[in-house]
Design goal:
With 538 residues, the protein is α+β, with helices and mostly antiparallel strands. The protein has 19 helices and 18 strands. The protein starts with 17 loop residues before the first helix and ends in a 20-residue tail after the last helix. 49% of the residues are buried. It binds flavin-adenine dinucleotide (FAD).
């Protein structure tokens, strides 16, 4: 069963090796495990629903609480400390586009707020309920989970928008196809959530981001139904798909999405390389991506992340042997690990790997084979489970990501980590900060930094304050380096304050105008994307 106050299925957990515990103690001091609130105690505080009885709407407190939050660190500690946020007044489990339409019409008629809820994996505060006198209806999309049609000739698959990753792949694989979209939240996140938050999967280098995969669909907007037909390409004015991509539930509810799928690949493997230093590794990755080699993944860890991952890996004897071998090959302190994916027909895969090895060796890369790559693939969705383990040990963890052009990649990576260290230094504390590049482009790269720090004594308030200051400091650093507000997690409530830096005044006014156009009664997901009450409020 899915955990209510942590990540993932409660049958899965990730242990911490003694080496990893020692590393945390050395870097952060002893952790202070917090005492978790119980679900029963939280649910007991939930006020009565303000919605009238309706055949499609459930109003029991337990169901409403389950739709109240996503998976951001702020959401996490609200659940852990029992700091009750506003919760929806009711939840409707929509089973068709027509039911979504009916619910939106009702909400407009009665002036309710609507928050679409899909996989609930948002890490940017997309699902928070505002404090409002208007009743809040959560429209849960989890029952919209079928493959409706596969056009094999065109390689187009139409899904109901609430279909989660495992059901997307299971339904396609049974027919010999894959979407190839594997965000780390794959177990729970959905087709619709991916589209409206502009998600990126681990193998975006081969399959593309969701923007490239989204071919058309059906949006139930408060003002009407927007149907976007599929065409292979068009010069018919602005592309309406762009209005749905990244719309974050502000313009309406995507109920169906047609996606570009691929036949299952003949070959897939992942391979590890090490570099003595960051600069050579970054140059090598840039060269590979600019050569347009048909790889499916390039994931480059900086020195601190590489050491952290090797410590977390367990198998002390094998890792010790690897460290000695790498040291003999010149990769000592500060070495960086690159994980490379090859997904193709057997012959292309062989040729691609050979060419990649040649280019990487030229930049000082040491190839150590596919064993670590196979381990990475087997555990590719398990990393987030460590957050649960860390919390139990008295440590907090969060991630912040962006993307920037190549000349700024290293500077920004270092500045993000430093900004976090500066924040915690003000509390007389330390943070363990490490980074990887996971989505690389000929023009630049995403930067994905992870932060681990000791849980503060004193419950919700001091922990929330530290997290907000961390987010603000790193966001300011990103803006100062002209990085994007988000490469893959979206804007939500948590990043909305910085959106104007990126879009400019006219851009923000355009977005606000679009909100007014699709949603004149302002019922859809207020405060997300565009701040409520701010200069660009719709
Ligand atoms: C552990 C973890 C790992 C993650 N890894 C990645 C990653 O590798 N790549 C990545 O891109 N993201 C990642 N994310 C972020 C998150 O999974 C994505 O933002 C995802 O696309 C959200 O999808 P969801 O179905 O869970 O949507 P939800 O979280 O339920 O909703 C997100 C937003 O979209 C709106 N919404 C959802 N469905 C619809 C719809 N059909 N119509 C209109 N509005 C809708 C909601 O109202 C909300 O505003 C990760 C999150 C976690 C917790």
């Amino acid at each position: 069963m899915r955990r209510w106050n942590g990540w993932g299925d409660d049958a899965t957990s990730m242990g911490l090796t003694e080496g990893a515990r020692a590393m945390l103690r050395a870097r952060l001091g002893a952790g202070l495990p917090a005492i978790d609130a119980t679900r029963e105690a939280i649910v007991a505080q939930i006020p009565a629903s303000r919605l009238p009885r309706h055949r499609l709407i459930q109003t029991d407190a337990s169901t409403r609480f389950a739709m109240a939050l996503g998976e951001s660190f702020g959401d996490w500690i609200r659940k852990r400390f029992g700091a009750l946020p506003p919760v929806p007044d009711g939840v409707a489990f929509a089973e068709s586009s027509d039911q979504v339409r009916e619910l939106l019409d009702l909400a407009q008629l009665h002036n309710w707020i609507v928050i679409p809820f899909a996989g609930g994996t948002s890490v940017a505060g997309h699902l928070d309920c505002p404090i409002s006198e208007r009743p809040i209806l959560s429209i849960n999309l989890s029952r919209l989970n079928r493959l409706l049609h596969l056009d094999k000739q065109s390689q187009l698959a139409t899904f109901e928008a609430g279909t989660p990753g495992p059901l997307v792949e299971a339904q396609l694989r049974a027919l010999g196809y894959t979407l190839g979209h594997f965000p780390q939240s794959f177990e729970y996140s959905t087709v619709g959530g991916w589209v409206v938050t502009r998600s990126s999967g681990q193998q975006s280098l081969r399959y593309g981001r969701i923007e490239q995969l989204f071919a058309g669909g059906r949006l139930e907007a408060p003002v009407g139904t927007l149907r976007i037909a599929t065409v292979p390409a068009a010069s018919a004015g602005p592309d309406l798909r762009e209005l749905v991509l990244g719309s974050e539930g502000r313009f309406g509810i995507l109920t169906e999405a047609t996606l570009r799928v691929s036949p299952l690949p003949e070959h897939e493997s992942f391979h590890a390389f090490f570099f003595p230093r960051w600069d050579a590794a970054e140059a090598a990755v840039r060269e590979l991506v600019q050569h347009k080699l048909p790889l499916s993944m390039l994931r480059l860890s900086n020195g601190i992340e590489t050491e952290t991952n090797l410590t977390l890996a367990g198998h002390a004897h094998l890792i010790g042997w690897l460290q000695r071998y790498l040291s003999w090959r010149g990769c000592t302190e500060g070495k960086c690990m690159l994980m490379l994916g090859v997904t193709a027909d057997t012959r292309t895969a062989r040729d691609t790997l050979r060419e990649a090895r040649r280019l990487l060796a030229r930049n000082g890369g040491v190839y150590i084979g596919p064993t670590m790559g196979s381990k990475w693939a087997a555990n590719r969705f398990k990393g987030p489970y460590l957050r649960n383990t860390l919390w139990d040990q008295g440590y907090c963890a969060d991630t912040i990501e962006t993307a920037v052009d190549w000349p700024q990649v290293k500077n920004l990576m270092l500045a993000m980590e430093q900004a976090a260290r500066d924040v915690f230094a003000q509390y007389g504390e330390r943070v363990h900060a490490f980074t990887h590049l996971s989505h690389v482009y000929p023009q630049g790269s995403s930067i994905y930094s992870q932060f681990v720090w000791a849980t503060a004594a004193g419950g919700f308030a001091p922990n929330f304050e530290r997290w907000q200051r961390l987010k603000a400091a790193v966001a300011d650093t990103i803006a100062a380096h002209r990085g994007t507000v988000s490469h893959q997690h979206g804007v939500g409530r948590d990043h909305a304050a910085h959106l104007a830096d990126e879009k400019g005044a006219l851009g923000m006014a355009t977005l606000a105008q679009l909100c007014r156009h699709f949603d004149p009664k302002k019922i859809m997901n207020p405060g997300k994307l565009l701040q409520d009450g701010g200069p660009w409020a719709s």
